[in-house]
TrEMBL record, chains A, D:
It is a multi-pass membrane protein. The chain crosses the membrane at residues 21-41, 53-72, 79-99, 105-126, 133-157, 177-200, 233-252, 285-305. GO terms for cellular component: plasma membrane. It comes from Ruegeria meonggei. This is Ribose transport system permease protein RbsC. It is found in: Cell membrane.
TrEMBL record, chain C:
It is an enzyme of class 3 (hydrolase). Pfam families: ABC_tran (PF00005). The lineage of its organism: Bacteria, Pseudomonadati, Pseudomonadota, Alphaproteobacteria, Rhodobacterales. Keywords: ATP-binding, Cell membrane, Hydrolase, Membrane, Nucleotide-binding, Repeat, Sugar transport, Translocase, Transport. This is Ribose import ATP-binding protein RbsA. GO terms for biological process: monosaccharide transmembrane transport. SUPFAM superfamilies: P-loop containing nucleoside triphosphate hydrolases (SSF52540). PANTHER family: CARBOHYDRATE TRANSPORT ATP-BINDING PROTEIN MG119-RELATED (PTHR43790), D-ALLOSE IMPORT ATP-BINDING PROTEIN ALSA-RELATED (PTHR43790:SF3). InterPro entries: AAA+_ATPase, ABC_carbohydrate_import_ATPase, ABC_transporter-like_ATP-bd, ABC_transporter-like_CS, P-loop_NTPase.
Length: 335, 291, 512, 335
């Protein structure tokens, strides 16, 4: 007490902020390295249009990765993000095309459906004590099937809803700065990321997200209704997947009911590359965004270089390992 | 009773619109002939062993005949032999089996169809320039045949046309979109792109739309509402269609005949067509298109 | 009835079963406002279990729980909190990824509108609590980066922040040094004056006279009796706990002239935590390491053992230099290290007792093809279970189900089984009951007599003085002196060395 | 210290074995319930030939699940089991068909390749401290690509290696008991399971597998070379995937280079349904086998019932959740 030295005073947030900042910078460094590498390898890579294409390619996976980040910080995992996205797209299709409801209601329905499904997963995990892996794997299959059932295994087109495809493809920014036609989908990703960041950093929900992932039992022993908060986090993640559903439906101007399987691994990969720990308790949205960008740049760059498909896969795998290794090694060095 | 006649169709896929069209043709025939069918296929065309598990489950229900679209031409032979021993006739559809067990095969010649796409493409870009292929799969029979049919034809017949790249989007609309954009980034002077199935073709259209590229010749494969719309609006020059409904229909029809011991032709070519804005409303064409 | 009305807590006939364990057999316990009621008993007697029932974590199988005259049945920690019951758990239960302030106010964060957190208020309120505790700790520090002692202080601050009517302290001082304990007692006295009832659990007998009003003793899940702290000699309480007399043997410093120097450490450096530490220990010697919290004693042990990389320094075993890059090298060189943090570094708590005891010695039980001889493992484990009196239903009980003190004994057994020449014990009796403690002292002395080399790190000066043939004192990462053991050295001598550089470091500390 | 008292010497093994045995029995109960349910629903389900088909369908996934179990007990995860299996099949194809080596050498090559790849993953995890999720995700992609590269994106047929297809398809049991033509693939699965069980339960490697999953740092501080043991476990798991590769290649009489993606989730699902915890430290091979059987029975039964394919997915998801829930609920009840 009195003797408690002043060692701690010197580095107030030592552990977190410093290495945290470093870490983000490092993932960022990998990203920059990739960008530079591809620019040198192909003169066509570094064009505004291609940069915008990369950003747009990030948008859907980025939104899903943000959702996955929330769940992963609680110490869980969400395998259902991909098929939930599809399910929400189908719900939007049913609302807008089959029922002919107004655009806003369709969008709201998709997000609400996402939140509801997230709440289901959350209930399975929190109340029924089913391990998140199984609960969300089950949801992944259920939603995959339901998307097909509801849509009648047919794509639902949004041709009757003018403006729907503009949600993702239009460019509000481009209208103001014509030289920078960044599509709305990218804008939405950033808004989602900022909101999620804010929730994580500044609200009670965010505080409990980290607390649950850090030591759930301790939180429970402190008298917090951990189940209720966990369900809310899963619901929030589900709602974000709903936004992802809107984004993809808008981009394809249709709800493709068979899509979405495999997207979960990509999203989780982005999260982990971004430095979020799968054991929970720590993670950042910024890191996840960078992780998603790394994946998108990698995929795009290899394609622009016309690397043979089979080698694209090999190189992607190797670079994912290397990027995380560089991160690890340097994090270790800086303490 | 007629309901007792059970004919399972084990397909290569299920969720794609193409397979749904095959399924609807099969159901149509099932109604006509008063038989019960089931239609199943794995999630993607790499899952050879899953398809065999499906075939095994289908055999458990004592079918009177089986329709089978083999993902691998050899892998299922033991099970097919088992069916043969039980006197269950097998009708192959979509692509063949390396064996004389199937009494009939209802299929499209994908190689020839893709060559036709190459001819049309060459014609439209004036016999010279650069083209690319967005294919749906690197290893499946249909993926290989359509890619090779197109690429080989170009190499053989059109020396001034260069196929600059073949890339794969798994038939996923979104992935194919990104693939297309990357191809266009790398090859700004591209003249045409061939998309080898519905998802790939839509992806190409999407990618071109998002990049705002103009003057590109796009040829697609199969149909679906989006592709038909793209052809009508001129975004897409045209597409190859098979006759999926016909494949399904003919498969069940042949199965019923074989079951009754009637003669069935060893090969039922259900044909393919090239369609574009000019003939899309032709009754003959619109009959083989699906939404 | 009048008396029960005054009582804050009245527990009677409490019964609790766990699979394979009848943990509480009709136990009684009561508490008045403004009193410190000590709860004593051997490891596994059921103290923590009884308090977990009081605080809503476990449900009792039988008996009555009356709080302020009302019969209650709290089923969650929150319900107990609402009844005015706060608890400091024996095992730290903190969220390492959160800051100190965030931990303290978890579940009660100051909020602005829309569920937004008021982080400034959070930190300010935490700083306020620390001020009343006279504790210098940054509210924004990450809990995971703190030493165990500081984490313990955070737990205490958290419990205080609830302003409970009943405060249960389950071994709050196990990880604290004397100065911190003194500070804690100031807080306890203040709470007493405010009318708070305090349940105090500890294995440090000397604390009873300082702080307790009444003492209740439990043994084997049964109530033994309640006595007045002031009038009852400690030896009587120990006898109640253990069921027999415990005799303290005096320390006999052996004559080790000419004995082989078995461990020699020279010029050990590690970052900012260790500066040029050199010492040597002889065969058959017990070298004690004293120092304040954060003095770097644990760091020395970990560096020797290869648990952390060292910047420089030489280690010689039996005169021969050895290169120790990992614990594996250390164990191969015949060095064993019992960590101060058993939960994180000592035990695989999900595994059973027998495998934990054999964890460092698997190679001794491995036959051809890597096949283990489980019977031999069982026999060996059981011999230590008997020797150390580890209270467990069987050798295949999972370690996490043992009481804290018994878990500690399992770690000790692990290193005894490994049979290392040189044993470093870091806080070996943390959380161990008096009876067992004296057994462990005897054991260490026996080991030394058998020719083992022993280093004991302890924050309890009496323990250091009771055991050490020589006493090494550390301060701020430096070895400030080595004192002879026995009567010639006083606590003041040790404290003098332990604080020697504090003044100097304070200056450099502020200068940085 | 005297007596360790009489605290219930009566039930010596109480805590562990009982609930352990219960748990296995419970997963087993779910399996039996499924079998009975399907038998009632369809007369065609309970035929010898269909039971054998189910077993056959379990064999490959079962072997992969056994491999995944080992890694999961250490507290890791292995996403590469599916593509590693394929890679090993391709290696066998190269050895047998392209190089024309003798059968046994081909089999050995496949298993060795598996072990080697496992060792790589293990090195990434143990030495380079890359989180297992990323290390094995990277390996999954690398191996997927390499399989295509090595095979030239074509299936490799084993027509020139007579007897190769008998490894999985033949039936030694059937030769002895003609009424019970259980294919060798199933036999091999059981042999692999027994061996893995033995290793987990009776050898140092197994003991460290559990210990690493329970508290790696404590094991390291006990003087154990944790890195080396972890690498061995990953290598062993890789070798088992090699056996899986042989099984599938033999069953298909060909190495299909594009196969394997998605198999990892199924294998992990079997592991978790079987009661193994994803946080490591606990698990059984028997449970995993039952988990794999539950998946196979479910898939087969729904097909035999001719449930529409989209509903099959929904029902599978729901039953996976329910099965694990039943397990959890009863485990909680029995303490
Ligand atoms: N959750 C549990 N499951 C099974 N047994 C348990 C459980 N919790 C405690 N026990 C057992 O109940 C008995 C009493 O344990 P408790 O933790 O109350 O002891 P304690 O008096 O606090 O000991 P210590 O001084 O070592 O902390 C011990 O035998 C312990 O092994
Ligand atoms: N993992 C760590 N990273 C950085 N610094 C550490 C770490 N562990 C301990 N320290 C610092 O090292 C110094 C000595 O550690 P420690 O408190 O363990 O010493 P000690 O003498 O063993 O004290 P005690 O055992 O009483 O806590 C302290 O200043 C502490 O803050
Ligand atoms: Mg206790
Ligand atoms: Mg220490």
């Amino acid at each position: 007490m009195t003797t408690a030295t002043d060692i701690d005073k010197k580095k107030p947030l030592a552990g977190l902020s410093e290495s945290g900042a470093y870490q983000k910078m490092l993932a960022f460094a990998s990203l920059i390295a990739l960008l530079i590498g591809f620019s040198i390898a192909s003169p066509n890579f570094m064009q505004t249009s291609n940069m915008i294409a990369i950003l747009q390619a990030t948008s859907v996976n980025g939104v899903l990765a943000v959702a996955a980040t929330l769940v992963i910080i609680t110490g869980g995992i969400d395998l259902s993000v991909g098929t939930l996205m599809t399910f929400c797209a189908v719900i939007a299709g049913v609302a807008l095309t089959y029922l002919g409801l107004p655009l806003l209601i369709g969008v709201a329905a998709a997000i609400a459906a996402g939140a509801l499904c997230g709440l289901c997963s959350g209930t399975f995990v929190a109340k029924m004590k089913i391990p998140p892996f199984i609960a969300t794997l089950g949801m992944m299959l259920i939603l995959k099937g339901l998307s097909l059932v509801i849509s009648g295994t047919r794509p639902i087109y949004f041709n009757d809803t003018p403006g729907f495809d503009q949600i993702s493809r239009g460019s509000l920014i481009g209208e103001v700065f014509p030289t920078l036609p960044i599509p709305n989908g990218v804008l939405i990703l950033f808004l989602v990321a900022i909101a999620a960041s804010y929730i994580l950093g500044r609200t009670v929900l965010g505080r409990y997200t980290f607390a649950l992932g850090s030591n759930e039992e301790a939180v429970r022993l402190s008298g917090v209704n951990t189940d209720a908060w966990k369900m809310r986090i899963y619901a929030l993640a589900g709602g974000i997947c709903g936004i992802g559903g809107i984004l993809i439906a808008s981009r394809l101007n249709s709800a493709q009911p068979a899509l979405g399987l495999g997207y979960e691994l990509e999203a989780i990969a982005a999260v982990v590359i971004g430095g979020t720990s799968l054991s929970g308790g720590r993670g950042t949205i910024l890191g996840t965004l960078i992780g998603a960008l790394i994946m998108a740049v990698l995929t795009n760059g290899l394609r622009v270089l016309s690397v043979a498909q089979e080698w694209q896969t090999v190189v992607t795998g190797a670079i994912i390992i290397l990027a995380v290794y560089a991160d690890m090694a340097r994090r270790k060095k800086t303490g | 009773a007629a309901e007792d006649i059970y004919i399972p169709l084990v397909s290569k896929g299920f969720q794609h619109q193409f397979w749904q069209a095959v399924k609807s043709g099969a159901e149509q025939a099932a109604d006509e002939y008063g038989v019960t069918i089931t239609f199943e296929g794995p999630d993607n065309e790499t899952m050879v062993d899953r398809q065999i598990d499906m075939l095994a489950a289908a055999l458990a229900n004592n079918p009177k005949a089986i329709g089978f679209a083999a993902l691998d031409s050899q892998a299922a032979i033991p099970l097919l032999k088992q069916a043969n021993d039980k006197g269950i006739p097998i009708i192959a559809f979509d692509s063949g089996v390396d064996s004389d067990i199937p009494v009939s095969t209802a299929t499209t010649d994908n190689l020839a169809a893709a060559s036709l796409a190459a001819d049309k493409m060459a014609d439209m870009i004036g016999g010279k320039g650069k083209v690319a292929v967005v294919a749906h799969d690197q290893t499946s029979r249909t993926g290989i045949d359509r890619r090779d049919g197109f690429v080989n034809r170009m190499a053989e017949k059109y020396p001034d046309i260069e196929v600059v790249t073949v890339q794969y989007g798994q038939g996923d609309h979104l992935k194919s979109t990104e693939v297309t954009k990357a191809i266009l980034t790398a090859n700004p002077d591209l003249n045409g792109i061939f998309g080898t199935n519905e998802g790939s073709a839509i992806g190409v259209v999407n990618g071109v739309q998002e990049l705002g590229t103009e003057g590109l010749i796009i040829i697609g494969y199969d149909s679906g509402k989006a592709q038909k719309d793209a052809i009508k609006s001129g975004l897409m020059a045209g597409a190859i269609t098979q006759n999926p409904v016909g494949i399904g229909y003919e498969t069940v029809k042949a199965a019923v005949a074989a079951m009754k011991g009637e003669d069935v032709p060893a090969l039922i070519d259900t044909g393919f067509y090239y369609y574009d804005a000019t003939n899309i409303d032709d009754p003959k064409i619109s009959a083989v298109l699906y939404d | 009835m009048g008396e029960t009305m005054d009582k804050l807590v009245d527990m009677t006939g409490i019964d609790k079963h766990f699979p394979g364990v009848h943990a509480l057999k009709s136990v009684q316990f009561d508490l008045f406002p403004g009193e410190v009621h000590a709860l004593m008993g051997e490891n596994g007697a059921g103290k923590s279990t009884l308090m977990k029932i009081l605080s809503g974590i476990y449900q009792r199988d039988g008996g009555d729980l009356v709080i302020e005259g009302k019969s209650v049945n709290p089923t969650t920690p929150r319900e107990a909190q609402n009844l005015g019951i706060g608890i400091i758990h024996q095992e730290l239960s903190l969220m390492n990824d959160l800051t100190v302030a965030q931990n303290i106010f978890i579940g009660r964060e100051p909020r602005k509108s829309f569920g937004r957190l008021d982080e400034a208020a959070l930190n300010a309120q935490t700083a306020g609590i620390f001020a009343t505790m006279n504790l210098a700790l940054d509210p924004r520090a990450l809990v995971g980066s703190l030493t165990i002692a500081k984490q313990q202080m955070v737990e205490i601050a958290k419990a205080l922040s609830y302003r409970s009517k009943v405060l249960v302290m389950d071994e709050p001082t196990a990880a604290l040094n004397d100065a911190e304990i003194a500070e804690l007692f100031v807080i306890i006295r203040r709470l007493k004056a405010e009318g708070v009832g305090i349940v105090y659990i500890s294995h440090k007998m000397d604390e009873l006279k300082q702080i307790a009003d009444r003492v209740t003793v439990m043994r084997d899940g049964e109530y033994v009796g309640t006595v007045d702290a002031a009038d009852t000699p400690i030896s009587r309480i120990i006898a109640m706990m253990v069921g027999r007399e415990v005799n303290e043997d005096p320390l006999i410093v052996p004559d080790l002239d000419g004995a082989e120097v078995s461990l020699q450490v020279a010029g050990l450096n590690r970052g900012k935590v260790l500066h040029d530490v050199s010492f040597s220990v002889q065969k058959g010697e017990i070298l004690g390491f004293a120092g304040l919290m954060g003095a770097g004693r644990t760091e020395v042990a970990r560096a020797i053992f290869g648990a952390d990389p060292k910047d420089s320094g030489e280690v010689r075993v039996h005169g021969k230099p050895v290169s120790i890059k990992s614990p594996k090298d250390a164990v191969r060189a015949g060095i064993g290290y019992l960590s101060e943090d058993r939960k994180h570094f000592g035990l695989a708590t999900g595994m059973n007792v027998r495998d934990n005891i054999a964890l460092a010695s698997m190679d001794l039980f491995t036959g051809a093809g890597g096949v283990l001889n489980d019977n031999e493992i069982g026999t060996a484990a059981n011999s230590y279970i008997t020797q150390l009196g580890i209270r467990t239903p069987s050798d295949i009980q999972e370690v996490r189900l043992l009481s804290g003190g018994n878990q500690q004994k399992v770690v000790i057994a692990k290193w005894l089984l490994r049979d290392c020449d040189i044993l470093i014990f870091d806080e070996p009796t943390r959380g161990i009951d008096v009876g067992a403690k004296s057994e462990i002292y005897k054991l260490l002395e026996d080991l030394a007599e058998q020719g083992k080399t022993i280093i004991v790190i302890s924050s309890e000066l009496p323990e250091i003085m009771r055991l050490s043939h020589r006493i090494a004192v550390m301060c701020e990462g430096r070895l400030t002196g080595i004192l002879p053991g026995g009567k010639d050295t006083t606590q003041e001598d040790i404290m003098h060395l332990a604080t020697q550089r504090a003044a100097a470091m304070q200056v450099t500390g502020t200068a940085q």
